[in-house]
Design a protein that fits this description.
The chain has a two-stranded antiparallel ribbon. Helix content is 59%, strand content 6%. Among the domains are: 30 residues, no CATH class; 340 residues, Cytochrome Bc1 Complex, Chain C (Up-down Bundle). A hairpin with a 5-residue loop joins β7 and β8. The chain is globular. The chain is built from 20 helices and eight strands. With 556 residues, it is mostly helical. The C terminus is likely disordered.
Length: 556
């Protein structure tokens, strides 16, 4: 007969008893314990993903409040609300409910503006987060699919923003829908049918607001939530990337555990983001729809522009000549092709295709299929950094073109002059950005090499016994030296023959691209280089020189 009794934990506090009740029935403590031990590296560039997540949470909370009072209908009615200048004006139910939220619901205007600022912060932080991932090479194996998830999130954020600011049915949103209608109708064969389906008839139709509302509050948020969950799941499975440094390898993660350090920091950071957005919402007006009035499709207004993330298609259309040097409308087999609309959208589509495919493009060119958990410094990947700079410039020029009329009126210059300069920047800007960014990366690499070999310039001048004046260089500590020399020496991978001894056309193209990638490069400092620069060839630890090749004379 066994006399052993099982010990059962009995919490003393009410909170402890509740937690123990849940744990003994749901078994969550092993999962919390395992996840709480996950290590996350600490670097300020990693915060942009957190800002995007927190902004999305605030979007959900503020959007839920707005959904209680917004009326997604295009039924015409006469406004009799609190805003006197609009009283008696005929408008849609969507626009009237937007005015009602702004002027009659307590806290409604604050929540409207909080929602809009949160949307801008969400897209901005998501964009910067993706740029960080791209420039540091965090998309490489095994995170290619996570990069694709990020690209999908970026597109969903754009669609969510467009559908959101189209809901009030004011003049600004109506102009955006008019442009979207033109883009749809420009698609050969199916464009007209897609427009009729979207608007419920000829533009502006009677159904677009209700359909956008369902997409904005139900379909798109659900898809974004799914993508966020998939993204975080992959981050946990693959572990977090980290910047190079002593003790950091491809097989470990140096940082802080989720609990309690990282969780406490993340919680505090959430309230910082919320406080910043709340301050903006309380002090800075955005999307003042009462100044625009209800949408009327008959006139066309100047001075309208979309939010920054939707500026690129509008700007591309503004840069396209209408009928110069010839008519851009062609008829093929009875189908009309309005190339003045289609042609500017083709480079944008190619840009997004290249963005999705870039991890595989770089892997094919470099023949690098290894696992990468340590990030690159952008300067140590000159070609990738230059490509990213060119893409950002291409996007930025089109975004600026969406405000060409405002640039002309605010700076008192001719609209045509602004358009001509932006057209030139459309073609030359990415090329110049590529060349400048690549040269800057190579220059920074050479500077790092110089610092490793000869130390940092101290600004102190000393006279040698024979009368020569030299600047004393301060030695680097091992941590800083390791950070400057710890990167891979990527070399050109020439075209190679296959098993049949033939060099295929695709392999020749890959070889040429590899030369373009790595022909201009700065090799990292080797131990032999360090010994030679410091003037001693023994087996002792390498020391940064105090004054270059004059150290021995200064010591005397």
């Amino acid at each position: 007969m066994s006399t052993t009794t099982d010990y059962e934990y009995k919490p003393r506090t009410r909170t402890g008893r509740i937690a123990n009740f849940v744990d003994t029935r749901a078994g969550v403590s092993p999962m919390v314990k395992e996840f709480g031990r996950k290590i996350f590296p600490d670097h300020w560039t990693f915060m942009f993903g957190e800002v995007a997540l927190y902004s999305f949470v605030i979007l959900l909370l503020s959007g839920t409040f707005l959904a209680f009072w917004f009326d997604p209908t295009m039924t015409s009615l006469e406004y009799n609300g609190s805003y006197v200048p609009m009283q008696g004006v005929e408008m849609s139910g969507a626009y009237a409910s937007t005015l009602n939220i702004s002027f009659d619901i307590r806290g409604g205007l604050f929540l409207r503006q909080l929602h809009h600022w949160s949307a801008l912060m969400f897209v901005m932080s998501l964009s910067v987060h993706m740029l960080r991932v791209f420039f540091t090479g965090a998309f490489r194996r095994p995170r290619e699919l996570n990069w694709v998830v990020g690209c999908v999130l970026f597109l969903l954020a754009i669609v969510a923003g467009f559908s959101g600011y189209s809901l009030p049915d004011d003049v600004l949103s109506g102009n955006g829908l008019r442009i979207a209608d033109a883009m749809l109708k420009a698609i050969p064969v199916v464009g007209t049918y897609m427009s009729m389906f979207m608007f419920g008839g000829e533009f502006p139709g009677v159904a677009i607001i209700g359909r956008l509302y369902i997409a904005h509050v139900l379909i798109i948020p659900a898809l974004i939530l799914v993508m966020i969950v998939v993204h975080l799941f992959m981050v946990v499975v693959h572990k977090h990337t980290q910047y190079p440094g002593p003790g950091r390898t491809e097989n470990n993660v140096v940082g802080f555990p989720v609990g309690p350090v990282y969780a406490a920091k993340a919680g505090g950071f959430f309230f910082i983001v919320f406080g910043l957005l709340a301050t903006l919402a309380a002090t800075t007006t955005i999307n003042a729809v009462w100044n625009y009035g209800p949408y009327d499709p008959s006139p066309v207004q100047a001075g309208s522009q979309p939010d920054f993330y939707m500026g690129f298609p509008d700007g591309a259309l503004r840069l396209m000549p209408g009928s110069w040097p010839f008519s851009w409308e062609f008829t093929i087999f009875g189908w009309v092709l309005p190339m003045a609309i289609l042609l500017p959208l083709i480079p944008i589509a190619l840009l997004f295709v290249a963005m999705f495919a870039y991890p595989w493009i770089e892997r094919w060119v470099t023949k690098d299929n290894r696992v990468h958990n340590v990030l690159d410094r952008p300067r140590n990947a000159p070609f990738r950094t230059a490509i990213g700079a060119a893409a950002v410039t291409f996007y930025a020029v089109q975004m600026m073109a969406a405000s060409s009329d405002l640039i002309a009126t605010h700076f008192h210059v001719g609209l045509n002059d602004v358009t001509y300069w932006l057209r030139a920047a459309y073609f030359l800007g990415p090329i110049l950005a590529f060349i400048i960014a690549r040269r800057m990366c190579l220059a920074l690499q050479r500077k790092d090499r110089e610092i490793v070999l000869h130390g940092r310039e101290s600004g102190r001048i000393q006279a040698l016994p024979h009368g020569e004046f030299v600047e004393v260089h301060e030695p680097l500590d091992e941590y800083k030296r390791y950070r400057l020399v710890n990167f891979e020496d990527q070399q050109v991978q020439p075209a190679r023959a296959n098993v049949k001894g033939k060099v295929t056309g695709s392999e020749k193209l890959r070889g040429r691209l590899s030369r373009w990638f790595f022909e201009d490069r700065v090799a990292p400092v080797t131990p032999h280089d360090l010994d030679t620069a410091h003037g001693h060839h023994d087996d002792h630890a390498h020391e940064a020189v105090g004054a270059g090749s004059h150290k021995a004379q200064l010591d005397k």
